[in-house]
Amino acid sequence: MVAKFKGQYGTGLESWTYLGQNYLIVDRALIPDILMLLRDSEQFDYCVDLTAAHYPTREKQFEVIWILYSFERNERLRVKTSIADGDSIPTAVGIWPTANWLEREVYDMFGIQFAGHPNMKRILLPDGWKGHPLRKDYGILQQDQEWVQINLGIESGQ
Amino acid sequence: MNERTMNDPTTHALSHLDLDTKDETFLDSNELVINMGPQHPATHGVLRVILKLDGEKVMGTECVIGYLHRGVEKIAEHRTYTMFNPYVDRMDYVAAVSNGLGYCQAVETLMNVEAPPRAKYIRVILTELNRLASHQLWLGTHALDIGAITPLFYTFRDREEILKIFEKYCGARLTTHAFRIGGCLYETYDGFEKEVKKFLAFVAPKIDEYEELLTTNRIWVERTRGVGYISAEDCIALGVTGPVLRASGVRWDIRKAQPYAAYSDFDFDIPIGENGDTYDRYLVRMAEMRQSLRIIQQAVDGIPEGPIMAKIPKVIKPPVGEIYHSIEAPKGELGYFIVSDGSTQPYRLRVRPPSLVNLQALDQMVKGQMIADVVAVIGTLDIVLGEVDR
C-alpha cells in the first residue's frame, strides 16, 4: 500500500513502524487526497480519533494525528502531518462525519483551524474563553480570569 | 424564525444552530426551541440538549457539553505516569476498572513490557465484573427514564455485591485504582475465587429476573422498538462503537478483534442485534452481561499461580516514542494515545472517549422522533458525562 502511495505522491509521504504500530507522515498539502484514498481504496472506513500535539521548539509547531481503523483488514494506522502556528488544515468531516466534534475539540484545545468545517467553534470550553489549554505555553493553573469574573461572579476559579 | 422563538429567552444561545430557513413550509410551522438540561434527571449528568421541535416532533438537536471538563489531558502532562493512574478512574466513573486497565496497558505497550499471566487473569475478572456493574447501572437508569421504576432497585441491589468484591479487593468501591503499570498491586484476598463464584451463581438468575420484567413487557417494547434507529453504515461513519454498533449488526468487539489481557484464552460470543433500535441495544447489553459471566467463570476456574507484577523500574520512564492502545470498555472503544519524550511524564496524553463519540450520533438518532424518545435515546447510548467532558 505504501509503495503504491509513494509511486503516486513521491517524497511527500513516509511510513514508519514503532512497536508494531504503523504510521504515515504526510505533507500537509497531500492530506485531503491521502485521507480520501485511505477510506475509499484501502478500507480505512472508521476514523477512531483525531488529535494533535504541540512542539513549541519545532518550526512547524503542531502535529495533527488521525487514528484510523479498517474493519476489513483488522488493522490500525495513524496519519500525521505537521503545520505551523496559524495554519489551517482541510476538514475531514466530508470523509468521516465523526471528525466533526473531534476537530472542534482540537480547535478548542490547540487553536488549530479546520478549513471548511461546518461549525468551527469551541466544544468543551465556553465560547468566550481566551486561550487554548493544551498548548505547551498555557500554564496548568492558568485560566481566563476575566471570563471567570464576569460569568461566575467570583474572583478566581482557583 | 417566528415570533415565538424570537421571544424565547433561550434564543440567544441558538444563533449558531443551523436553522433551515430555505424550507418555506417549515417557517410556517409551529416551531419551538426548548432547552433540556444541563440539570435534568434524564441526561445522566450535566448534558444540555437544545431541541428544535415541531409540535412533539424533533427537527434537530444541538448538544452543549463541557460542564464537567477538568482538563484530564492537561493534568497528565504535569504528572508522572504513576501519579496519573488514579485520574483515569474519574472519567467513566461507573467503569473505573476498565479505564485503569486501558491506561496501564497503554503505558505497558509504550514500555514494551507485559503483565504476568496471573495479573492478566485478575484484570479480566475485575474488568468483566465492572462491565456487568456498568450494564446494570445502565439498565436501571435507562428503564427509570422510560418509566419503569422497579428495575432500578433490582439492579442496584445486585450491583452492590460487585462493589463489595471491589471494596474487599482494593478498598474502594467506585474509583478503584485496582491496577498498576506492570500488573496488579494487590494479591487476591483469601476466598476471592469462592466469593466470585458465589456471586456468579447469585447473579445469573437475577439477570433472568430483569428480563422477565422488561423483555416482553408491552409498554417497554412499545417505548423502545423502532426508536432511535441507526444503521451499521451510519454507526461506522460516525465512529460509534460498543453495544450500539453491535446492535446495528456489526460483529466487532476489540476483545475478539485485537485481543488484549487474557481474553484470547476464553470462549465467549459477541452478541449482535439486527434492527439497530433501542430494543435491540437493550437485548445486546443483556446478552453481554451473560457473556461476561461466562468469561469470569472461565477466568476464575483457570487462574494461574505466579507473580502479579512484571519487572519494571521504580521510576517509570518509557523510551521516546508514541503509541495508541485501546480496549473494549462497556461503552465502546476506549483508547489512549501517549507521546513519550523519554521523561517521567507523558509529553502528550490523549484519551479517546467512547461516550463523546457515541453522543455525536444523538442528532441523527432522534431526528423525526417524538420528544419523549430523546430521553430513551440518551439512555440507550449509555453515556457518562465525566468521560464526555474529561
Counted by DSSP, the helix tally of chain A is: 4
Q: Shape of chain B from CA axes?
A: globular
Biggest sheet features of chain A: 5 strands, mixed
Structural class designation of chain A = alpha/beta
Number of helices of chain B: 17
Explain what this protein looks like in three dimensions.
The complex is a heterodimer of chains A (158) and B (390). Chain A is an alpha/beta fold. In chain A, 24% of the residues lie in helices and 28% in strands. In chain A, the strands form two sheets. A five-stranded mixed beta sheet of chain A has the order 1-2-5-4-3. The longest helix of chain A is centred in the middle third of the chain and has 12 residues, at 99-110. Chain A is elongated and about 60 Å long. The mean pLDDT of chain A is 86. With 390 residues, chain B is an alpha+beta fold. Chain B has helices at residues 3-6, 24-28, 72-77, 81-88, 96-111, 117-146, 150-170, 192-214, 218-224, 232-237, 243-247, 254-257, 278-301, 354-359, 362-366, 371-381, 385-389; strands at residues 31-36, 39-40, 45-46, 48-54, 57-64, 179-180, 183-184, 321-329, 332-340, 346-352. In chain B, the strands form four sheets. In chain B, strands 1-4-5 form a three-stranded antiparallel beta sheet. In chain B, strands 8-9-10 form a three-stranded antiparallel beta sheet. In chain B, strand 2 (39-40) and strand 3 form a beta hairpin. In chain B, helix 5 (96-111) packs antiparallel against helix 6 and helix 6 runs antiparallel to helix 13. The longest helix of chain B has 30 residues, at 117-146. The radius of gyration of chain B is 22 Å and the shape is globular. Chain B starts with a helix and ends with a helix. Classes of the chains: A alpha/beta (158), B alpha+beta (390). The interface between A and B is large, with 36 and 40 residues.
Overview in brief:
Chain A has 158 residues and is α/β, with parallel strands linked by helices. Chain A is 24% helix and 28% strand. In chain A, the strands form 2 sheets. Chain A has a 5-stranded mixed sheet with strand order 1-2-5-4-3. A two-stranded parallel sheet of chain A has the order 6-7.
